[in-house]
# Entry
Amino acid sequence: MPTAVFEARNLTKTYQMGEVEVQALRGVDLDLFEGELTVLLGPSGSGKSTLLNILGGLDIPTSGTVRYCGEVLDTDDDATLTRFRREHVGFVFQFYNLIPSLTARENVALITDIATNPLTPEEALQLVGLGQRLDHFPAQLSGGEQQRVAIARAIAKQPHVLLCDEPTGALDASTGIVVLEVIERINRELGTTTAVITHNAIIGQMADRVVTLSEGHIQKTEANPWRRPAGELSW
Amino acid sequence: MAAASRGAELVMLAIHRKLLRDLAHMKGQVIAICLVIACGIATFVMSLSTLASLRETRAVYYERYRFPHLFVSLKRAPETLRRRLEEITGVRAVELRIVSDVTLDMPGMDEPAVGRLISIPETHRPGLCNLHLRAGRYVEAGRDDEVIVSEAFADAHELKPGDSVTAILNGRLQTLHIVGVALSPEYVFQIRGGEMLPDDRRFGVFWMGETALAAAFDMTGAFNNALLSLMRGAAEEQVIEHVDDLLEPYGSLGAYGRDEHASDRYLSDEIRSLRGMGMIAPAIFLGVASLLLNIVLSRLIGTQREQIAALKAFGYSNRDVGQHYLGFVLVIVVAGSLLGTVGGMWMARRLTQLYAEFYRFPILQYRLDASVVVLGLGIALAAGVVGALISVRRAAKLPPAEAMRPESPKSFRATLLERLGLQQLLSPATRMIFRNLERQPVKTALSILGIAMSVGVLVLGNFMEDSLDYLMDQQFQIAQRQDVSVSLIEPATGSVVHDISHLPGVIRAEPIRGVSTRMHFGHRSRRVGITGLPPDMQLFQLLDANRQRLDVPPEGLLISDKLARILEVQPGQSVTVEVLQEERPVRDIPIAGVIDDFSGLAAYMSIDALNRLMQDGETVSGLYLTADSQHHRELYAELKSSPRVASVTIRSGMLQTFRETMAENLLRMKAWNVFFASVIAIGVVYNSARVSLSERSRDLATLRVIGFSRQEISLILLGELAVLTLVAIPVGLLIGRGLGELVALGLDTELYRIPLVINPDTYGFAAIVTLTASVLAGLIVRRRLDHLDLVAVLKTRE
# Structure
């Protein structure tokens, strides 16, 4: 039995969106295991981003508990969460969230400046195949390249977990696959526990496990008999 | 290994690079705010360092040339009193002098000028009020016609050692040979008591050997003026009491301290007004800067929500993020402050030099305290941080998960105009303008306040001109209608009126009588001259607060409103009048009314009542005349040579001097004000426009895509600015008026009062300059609107 990196129990989350109250999670139990690549599948509004945000220490649940390697995460002590994110988590977002005023190298340096045992920005960009585009600004890069910079930025600190929120959502299929290959490689080569959110069921085939969410509940959890290499996916 | 290579390549942290790049990206806005801060710090540094320089210069000048602490004029006393004066506890040194005003006949001037002759010892320098020789030499013993002339008068008449002037000394025409040109701490402002401004052409000081002067005025062995310096810690009030007791039998007009000394008073007032300027102007600029930082930073943080989310997701703490955005404030404030400090130092140096020339200080101590610079920077930083605090806190507190989601749709609602059922009047574009303004009431209010400030600065800058115009009009057209005022050497009987009214060209001659008094009410008292006026006075009018003519009552006093406020006395109550001349009667006299005047502390009563008070029959000490302008020259010639005339003041001369002095100062001030106000207006409008453009570019691009023209979308954006500006103008006019009141209050001294008068054209000028600056800023932004990249704008998520 592999060790659980994350243990979430009976998570609920309600938040205010303008004048509407949104119930994003309605009681979720989930474990993520060491070195595992998990895909969280579900249509938009199913609560998967909220779940990922809570796991990543970006948000706290309205009720329920989350533990990371046995330590409680559902605290509203901002300093604890910040330290957790700084030391252990790498994030990848659908819209890359690169800082437009910084070059690829400098965007990665944002992380290496504050991490304890980081790769160099050059090494991280080399890992995602962008060793030649170090000094380009985000506006000078294609969408796929921007997302790879974002991945380089996320892994530069050598995080324990990598959380990816719709990493291919803004990309066309072939570019998306390149990005997924990078994520797959990081998971395999660095052993980083990885969770990928998507609404695209095909991407589930590259995972160890697929967790399907719907309307704030976990609908089902399936373990794949084998991981299909990202390069073989198509949609 | 990683650390080593990082150290070499990335000396600057990536987050700092972001700061610098973001600043570079918004350089227009950054420069605008920097300039506003620079203006504030420049005026601050200028005012305070000029203030320090002036104070220091004055202190050194007074110390080195031994400016006394007490002054007293009297009729005539024996020099043997010196010992008794020196024995008064607290007195350090005593200087006895003869001082007398004489009529001068200056070449090139039809009208007579007044010379003040002051005695100086021939064998040594005066112990108090020493002279600083600018040219020539000191007077020599045994020469009875040598004088040293004050530099201001010498410059006005191009006099130099070797020249001579003609004066009437005690009724005898005498030629005075100038041997030196000098400065004295007693006449930093060469001003005659009772005048509003120095007039260097018509009033000059001459120092003459005491033996010669005493002989000319039959004052050998006597004095009529004394200066006293006090020991450190001496009780001035007590010394004054002793001096008054001692000198009262000799016709003393009462001793007074530096606080009642005309020249020192003017200097102190000037220093005080500098301090006022050192507070008001920087407060306005830094207030506006603070407001601009608030507007700009809150927008910046709004557009960088996702960047903030990313930073936090990677482990940057709230504190890191807060510090990052405070960094914007820091860079802008420090850059603006540096620019302002350099500018302020330059201005201060020039201003101090200007003051030194104007005041004719023999020494000039320029001082720039590091503390002023540090204080300025501190205040600017505080203003910046206050302005940015709310936005920065918002950035720091922004929960990362929330920042990750797009901002929830802004809730709009029908505007007040629409709720009032006036929607038919509004086109969709106009509705967008009003809804936007209403949805962000704080931002809208701040923008309006900022623009209003520029209007206010302009009103403030020009109101002095209006007020002084009004003052001159009131003073010289309505109150004082005489062409010439004559003061006599000795009070004379009424027949002098008859004599003078028969001089060539005289149309009307009205007698006046001046009497020195000390007026008491309760424990408060002031030295005040009472002027007696004839009941049918025409050449001099007293006006009440409503600018209505007040007739001189047969009994009782009319006093300056300021005097009434100082004594805290009201019409109907009586003051105790202690006459300081002749028989020195003391009487309680009722206050019959309060007059509205602009300079000094004055009291008037019927000349008959005054004569009765003095118990010496019909007496005249001066006259007001109107004369046929055809005969002015002959009249002046007669007055110049008349042995009874002590001095002559020409109204047109006063007016001219007043205009010349004021015009120069006001013009310079006006130019600066327009510059400062434009900086504010452009800064505020430009920043508001850029922020609106950034908030609205997506909407505007969408409108362009669905077929709106450039003009139409410009209308929406620029219309918003137009509304802001139009609302701001009346607000600014009110602010300007309020600031004017503050300044008028600050200038409300015993020496002069500035009425608050603002002409419509001043309001108009302020509105037009601000409007022009707004249009200019609008056009700059409009150019960006023309280059709106439709596709790119629509692609970005917001």
Chain A has a mean pLDDT of 90.
